[in-house]
Design brief:
alpha+beta, Gyrase A, domain 2, Elongation Factor Tu (Ef-tu), domain 3, 5-stranded antiparallel sheet, 34% strand
Length: 312
Amino acid sequence: MSIELPIGGVCRLADRGVIRASGADAATFLQSQLTNDVASLDSGSARLAGFCSAKGRLQASFVVWRPAADEFLLSCPSAILAPTLKRLSMFVLRAKCKLSDASGELAVLALAGTAATALLADAAVWQVRSRGATTLVRVPDAAGVQRAWLVAPAGAESDVAAAPAMSAATWGWLEVESGVVTIEAATVDRFVPQMVNFELVGGVDFKKGCYPGQEVVARSQYRGTTKRRTFLFDGAIVAEPGQDVFLAGAAGEPAGTVANAAPAPLGGGSALVELRLAALGDGALHLGSVDGPALQRAALPYPVAIDAEATA
């Protein structure tokens, strides 16, 4: 969706939590559990990573960074943090790695527009910079707007004290426009990484070795054709994560699932919809039912290759 309004400012991401992994075996442990290579991560970079079930379905998606050699921070939605932490902890066994909820210690703030460029104007996407106790993470642009996270000890967010306020809804819309899917409570265990384009946005390393579900994810990549992908859509109403999407005139199974959604600044809403590729050219798509509100496909900020066989 093209928006002419100036968009920017800062808001606290009350819906984001942080897991801390620390100890001599933290890197080895996370390397064995996540879809991306985190063992090679340095203090100047962040990375997307997923945590899958044995069936290759995403249980969580993280932004991961490494403040110290034996410490990693993993941010995910607060609503899934506790069950994700519990499940990850089941695999620690004898590894020298302590997992804990650091959400009460750290504030995660979102910066967009001039609020982000003022602090990270020349930083590349996923670059990390430290300013004392504060960490700045450059995240992907959205709708032509530069974006970043500021992570600081709770109560010490002075770097952006003078920045204009931005609503959480505006940031949520920018998240959708970025094309990077976040696994939410309604979508846990719904998607193999390729269904939500996770490997296209740098969330999967196919050379890093084993992790839960790795064989399923690799098979989806190297054998056959990917038959489901995620696309950006606009609509007159705001969708809900986990909501079904239907093809007009096709009763029965839904054609796709809303992964993330948010209200748009000028009304209506935008959504990232995981979709059966065969439904792309067969007619109008509707939210919630075959005669529900219509959805209009919009442009993602990155290309998605579509094999002709997958749309047949």
